[in-house]
């Protein structure tokens, strides 16, 4: 007789069904470095599904820094930051991140997901409130589930709704608004100026998750608060090193007292091993490049503008994106898997995003740009996307702009 757990896992059939149809789109093994072209099943595929926005993950300067760190410090730290796992380069990286984001101090964690778990779970208590944009990242939501405080969501980027939700909360309670700087699937930017103005009215604090904004917007890529010139109005900035910063790990930047508090309360920091030496050294090297070589960010935006123009010209529905993250709406789960698989056959890698990550009628291909793409690669990918969409008869294709 099967146990209840065996029954539950056997009843999960979504992935099996997609596999049976030959269109299962996840865990595709890549046999090369994360660049604008990758090798999958021995074939060259254009990569338009990467978060390496600045295209630095295979940069010789960063790879050399990682190798040197392995030579000097070995491959792991064998402990948490709290006890035996703090290296001098962790502290150097914290100083660099604080300076880069324009905050007094910073604290690094082993992943961005852990940052949000640690920060969301420890800032507020039983009679306090965490107020989230409904499209906030999963790591923020999971962090709030570990918190004892109440969680309220407002409609995506709707600051009137935010105002309404805040206006009924008790004056004395701690209220913390948490938003993604650039939203990870939609590609639009948080309306930070309005959020700051609402927060000020109700004495609320603000956390911005800059996972997708660092290296992308703001002064030299310093992120969302810098983009709006509101660094002093944002209380905490969280982020990851796994995207533009070409490594693995994450951080929170804030005033020194908040960082001191988090050092002693964020359980995902205290009870988890620290960033590997090579990961930390890679981020320091990536920051060296980002701070001194503006062409990476310039190229990213040239490519983004060009891709948006071509996609709109093809009549594809890309929503109100404002960043290198471009959703191409399919609005049907199965068709999203199908076009992802057909595109891979055609030599283009894109990410499918289906329900429950987004509502089923908003399922989409997540198309993302890198600074290192060529215009030729962008043209080739968009031509193939357009061809595949027509072949599948995707209904929401708009009349091309001519
Ligand atoms: N926040 C956002 C908005 C993200 O998109 C991600 C990763 N996709 C994370 C946090 C987590 O970052 P990491 O990959 O470093 O765990």
From TrEMBL:
CDD domains: KBL_like. The keyword Transferase applies. Residues 45-385 form the Aminotransferase class I/classII large domain. Its cofactor is pyridoxal 5'-phosphate. One of its GO terms (molecular function) is pyridoxal phosphate binding. Pathway: Lipid metabolism. InterPro entries: Aminotrans_II_pyridoxalP_BS, Aminotransferase_I/II_large, AON_synthase_class-II, PyrdxlP-dep_Trfase, PyrdxlP-dep_Trfase_major, PyrdxlP-dep_Trfase_small. Keywords: Pyridoxal phosphate, Transferase. Belongs to the class-II pyridoxal-phosphate-dependent aminotransferase family. This is 8-amino-7-oxononanoate synthase. It comes from Ohtaekwangia koreensis.
């Amino acid at each position: 007789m099967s146990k209840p757990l065996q029954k539950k896992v056997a009843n999960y059939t979504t992935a099996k069904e997609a596999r049976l149809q030959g269109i299962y789109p996840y865990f595709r093994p890549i046999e090369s470095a994360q660049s604008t072209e990758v090798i999958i099943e021995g074939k060259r595929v254009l990569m338009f599904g990467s978060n390496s926005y600045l295209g630095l993950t295979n940069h010789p300067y960063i790879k050399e820094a990682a190798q040197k760190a392995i030579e000097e410090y070995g491959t792991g730290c064998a402990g948490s930051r709290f006890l035996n796992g703090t290296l001098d380069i962790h502290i150097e990286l914290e100083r660099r991140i604080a300076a880069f984001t324009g905050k007094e101090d910073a604290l690094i964690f082993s992943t961005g997901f852990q940052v949000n778990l640690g920060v969301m779970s420890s800032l507020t208590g039983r009679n306090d409130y965490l107020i989230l944009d409904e499209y906030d990242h999963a790591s923020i939501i999971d962090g709030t589930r570990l918190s004892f405080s109440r969680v309220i969501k407002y409609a995506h980027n709707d600051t009137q709704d935010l105002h309404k939700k805040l206006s009924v909360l008790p004056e004395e309670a701690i209220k913390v608004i948490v938003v993604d700087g650039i939203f990870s699937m939609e590609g639009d930017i948080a309306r930070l100026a309005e959020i700051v103005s609402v927060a000020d009215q109700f004495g609320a604090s603000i956390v911005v998750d800059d996972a997708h904004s660092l290296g992308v917007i703001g002064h030299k890529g310093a992120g969302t608060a810098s983009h709006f010139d509101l660094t002093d109005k944002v209380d905490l900035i969280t982020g990851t090193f796994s995207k533009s910063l070409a490594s693995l790990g994450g951080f929170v930047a804030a005033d020194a007292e908040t960082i001191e508090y988090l050092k002693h309360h964020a359980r995902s920091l205290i009870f988890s091993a620290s960033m590997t030496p090579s990961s930390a050294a890679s981020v320091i090297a990536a920051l060296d490049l980002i701070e001194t070589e503006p062409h990476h960010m310039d190229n990213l935006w040239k490519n983004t503008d060009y891709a948006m123009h071509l996609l709109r010209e093809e009549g594809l529905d890309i929503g109100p994106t404002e960043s290198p993250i471009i959703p191409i709406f399919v609005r049907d789960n199965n068709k999203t898997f199908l076009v992802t698989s057909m595109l891979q056959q055609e030599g283009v890698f894109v990410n499918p995003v289906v329900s429950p990550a987004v509502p089923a009628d908003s399922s989409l291909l997540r198309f993302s740009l890198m600074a290192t793409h060529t215009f030729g690669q962008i043209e080739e990918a968009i031509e193939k996307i357009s061809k595949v969409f027509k072949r599948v008869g995707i209904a929401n294709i708009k009349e091309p702009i001519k």
